[in-house]
Fold these 3 entries.
Entry 1:
Amino acid sequence: MPVTKTINLFHRFPGLYAAFKQQKVHRVIRLLLFFMLVVLIFAGFFGPQDPSKNFMLYLCWGLWWPGVVLSWFFVGRMWCGLCPFPEFGRLFQYFGLTGNIRVPKFIVKNNMIIAMILLTAILLIEESTRMYESPRESALLLLFILGGATFCVLLFGKQQWCVSCCPLGRMIGFGASISLLEFRADHDICRQCKTFACKRGTEQLPGCPVSLGAFNIVNSLECHVCGYCLQLCPHDSPQLRLRSPLHEIVLRKGKYITCTYIIPILMGSQLARILDQSVLSYTSKIQATCTSDTVCQMGLYLIPFVLAIIFVYMIVSLGDLFFGVYHDDLLGSFSPMVPVLFPVAFAGELVHRLTFAVRNAYDFFPTIGRQFGWSILESWTFTVPEWVYPAIALPIMMMGQIGSLYVLDSMVFGEFEGLIATWRYHTIQIVFILMFAIYISLISMSWDIGMLNVLHLMHISI
Ligand code: SF4
Ligand code: SF4
Ligand code: SF4
């Protein structure tokens, strides 16, 4: 296994260590975010339903969610340590009002499937109903996650929603795999440990909220990077480390099934979405066909969505076929194209979320003004030049592309050196570059810049 250097930030910045250990900052931020969540839900249900008169839409889809996606790269799953959704359940926990029911085997066994079904449903509903234009539907989504997180605490005690069901958590865990930070225990220290208090807790404090424990962390998928276990560990074993962002996916090779499922779903939804927004406008056509029937809209949107997922799945399978190596002595079987596609999938999601945030930023203050009758805010607007969109999208997509090719090279010329024929390696590169070209050409359709609009330049009209 390749070893890379990491820097323990807790050693370098003792103040950071103290902040994580005391948990006061975490509690304050969580409370503030919980307050914001309640305001958003309230504004979504009881505020104006006209999107140009309700500020909650931009807060939710333009600031909150793009901010979370951006944080994946820098701080991994740290958002989950500050997330307000489990906060209501924590209140019940504090007063001892929680059940201790054993989690049904069905849920334990199928937690990945449950989370993936929920994630697919959310992506499907989000696009087919244009949820980001509907305050009530956006509030319903927030309420659904808040309800799920609270219900699970009431039933099972700990944050079982986060462990088993939360689709956002799965996505964040997926993104955290290419984060600059990792939270890990020092296993040399843990080997001497007798208490395992990070997982089990002490007489005064309960253990890890997601029943993991620092000594159990082997990847970035599950740990919330909340730092709660620092106060439990008697040996200062947990560390927050700065690392090479692509190290984890090269090391694990996409072995974890979360990534295997998420890559086709995420990239499929991106392709369906940018095809819709740039070329085909099928959401509008579907909405016109189905008038007010939401089920009909979702049903029809399912067709391009599933076709896009199948397309990405075929790219993954084709790439696997050419790669030819599916086994690692330590990890067992894996799908080599999953880690290769990982950086591009992340870049595509980031571009989409940031584009939405920038395209709608000009109307944030006027929207608040319209909602509360403060006409002075109507003039607090600005124009975003069209070149800004490619200036955001192209560097991010290029970094994703370079990241993907780096992962491919690391595997072909690293651990599997000599096992993959040169023609196979080049074939994967060609398939990958073709896919990347499809992405760029579709994204460019949404820019009102003729010289950058690839399909327009090729005189292709759809
Ligand atoms: S898993 Fe979901 S509910 Fe739990 S902390 Fe993360 S985002 Fe929040
Ligand atoms: S992290 Fe601390 S409490 Fe947990 S096993 Fe290691 S030494 Fe023990
Ligand atoms: S292992 Fe530590 S940092 Fe990770 S979720 Fe558990 S308590 Fe939080």
Entry 2:
Amino acid sequence: MLFNEMEGDYMEQGVFQIGPIRPPSEANSLLLRVTENCPWNKCRFCKLYKKNDFHIRQVEDVKKDIDTMAELRDRILRHYKNDEWDIESVNKEYQTLTSDDQRWCYQMVFRWLTEGDSNSIFLQDANTMCLRVDWLTEIIRYVRVKLPEIKRVTSYGRANTLAKISTEDYKRLKEAGLDRIHSGYESGSDKVLALIEKGCTQEEQIIGGRKVRDAGIELSIYFMPGVGGRELSDDNAIETAKVISAVNPNFVRLRTFVLRTGSLMEEVRDSGHWTEGTDIEKLLEIRKMISSIDSSKVNGKITSDHIINLLQEVNGDMDTDIPWMLEYIDSFLALPKLEQRKYQMARRMGFPLDWKQLWRMRESDRLIIEDLAKNIVDEHEWEKKLHVYMDHYI
Ligand code: SF4
């Protein structure tokens, strides 16, 4: 990740700021750092910005970054002739870059131009929606002028902030060109929200989410099955489904909770009132949550677009595919325990497979996995082993 110190008099050529995180769906987007770090910074499961203070960047500095992106785009596009990239000359130019920051920025703009959905820009960091609406609209308008090929402007926004923004301001943001807000709701349960110190309530989630949707801005919300522990598993599932049914977001993105080493959730566990569920218990919670959604009120998508979810195939439209998603989960749960375990271990080791595709693995890998699945008899040891892998890739 890149953190530049460019806000002083000196500004390195061809460099703009890049923050540490973006949603997976923005992997090929340009990343425009509008604020730095998180203004809340208290969620107990989150370690991301704990050592950094929140800052709002000056609009003029953000605009300079947009200018730099546009200059880099023009520079890189000179290597595109007759519908083809001259990769050799791209590489030659890349070799002339003298700092890591220059190389990161060049790579990002090149990837944005060449890979997948190259029409998006994501506004960083954790809660850009807390910015004054005048400033945010000014920045988005500037993006639209300087980078006219951008078709989608997206941002993170915390539920508590989203609830406070007026309907009028959402309309202004939409008119300026804000297309989608990503928001980590994590849970719809007030009990769980208090436990993890999320700093918002179910009511705020519903109010904020509805305002976003009413303004015609897409809403992508993230939930953490398992974050309430065994004790609040049912509450987490049912109350989360309630929020989804009330808000009808465009996307529900699942992020199965795993207790991270060094996070404040360890204190919650040590208090003795919270116990982390097993991998399979978390899957059962996902099942309960999905089955509790009122499919007559929603038409967005559920996606499992993160390696942290055990069954990546649980994806689909909420108005039509819920029966299919439940059947798919049930078909996995109906497998003999050894088969379940083999898939769990393969997935947790990072093989991005559907459980029906295990046979495609290399025999040597299959044998290692089979050995672990058969020979770790103690359930506690088994969960610990899975956890070691998951702790690495969150
Ligand atoms: S709001 Fe987001 S970035 Fe900030 S502490 Fe919570 S999870 Fe972390």
Entry 3:
Amino acid sequence: MSIQTDRSRQLLAESKLYLAGGVASSLRAAMKPTPLFAVSGSGPRVRDEDGNEYIDYLLAYGPLILGHAHPSLAEAVGEALKRGATFGLQHTGEIELGKLLVEALPCADRVALSGSGTEAVMLALRLSRAYTGRQKVVRFHGHFHGWSDAIFTSFPSPDMKQAAAAASAGAVPPGTSGQSELSLKDVVLLPWNDFDALEQTLRERKDEIAAVISEPIMCNNGCIRPKPGYLEKMRELTAELGLVMILDEVITGFRLGLSGAHGKFGLKPDLVTIGKAMGGGIAISGVAGKEDIMALIENGTVGHLGTLNGNAVATSAALATLRELAKDGGSAYGRMERTADRLVEGIRSLLAKHGIPGLVNQAGPVFHMMFIGEEKVEDFDAFNKRDAAKYARFAERMLEEGVLIRPSGLWYVSAVHGEDETRATLAAIDRVMAGLHS
Ligand SMILES: Cc1ncc(COP(=O)(O)O)c(C=O)c1O
């Protein structure tokens, strides 16, 4: 079976006449058999220009936690637009959202709003440097923190040995050509989930290190959980040495629960970055954290700028999304987890049934499926042993079965995916796996 993609291909060719590369974000160019042009979405389903309909687990790379065109979100955004999209003045929506965030996120005394995850990370790094008076930032192999020059290292890294060798020679491999080499001189790249490596580096170089930034779960590469005690020890050590611990919750924030991963894990980092699911598909992000660090914005030490920061459309989208997620004691999270659990259990049984070596790492409503001979994938080196080409083939064939998944292996489940979607998805996987050897 193959799907019609003529119209998407035609539109890509037309788009290339005007948009560099024909797509608005480089990652999208890699989609096989071709980048698809969406027409509309509703709930857990999306339709493309060729008339194909897919059950959607891409979910726009994470933000669509309520699925497509959720009525509460659509209404809130529509009403906000009627009142005025943005003012460049303050409005009460910012206060309502700020209050909601401070109440939901355990580490948040104050928040600062921005537009994208990349900007939030930029601000968190800037706050850390101003707070400590130090320059360097520790980040980890396999994590992703957006595409600003200050933090974008090779991603996904095809060869970690090469990256590690370059890093130990003092040159962190850039994420792209054209990136300032100077900014990456402030980045110290370490393996994740290795507390000894972290402790050694932090103790030796504490006088130059401003911050450690980490995803709480390595969602971007393998959905790998922290080893028991790892983040807690990171917390203790960074506090002891007086440097800032930043948890990048752009994926996990509001996805694992309303209090984010740090709330779930009972951790209090100094700063967290949030984005993606927060706005349900409308651009909004933020930094939340400790009063004395966030005070650097208030007293003018750290610049926090952005024409559209806190605009009324974005704040109303975030308020609608977070209120929807909080309804009935947060029952959406239970629903998402049950759907994800059923999918993951089903995928594991199907891997066994078809004798395909593979595994699934799950963190609540997000999971990473991979074809790999390992029993477990608990670090980035193990993750790099997966058969990425085979998975990309699998993703392409799933499209033919009406299921949209990310070719990297990361699946997102929304609050509106249910039994019907789970059943249809597992049946599709069964058929695709049956033909995967050919
Ligand atoms: C953990 C993490 N941080 C930051 C970002 C950057 O966010 P954005 O794409 O909104 O700039 C991403 C994006 O995928 C992310 O996964």
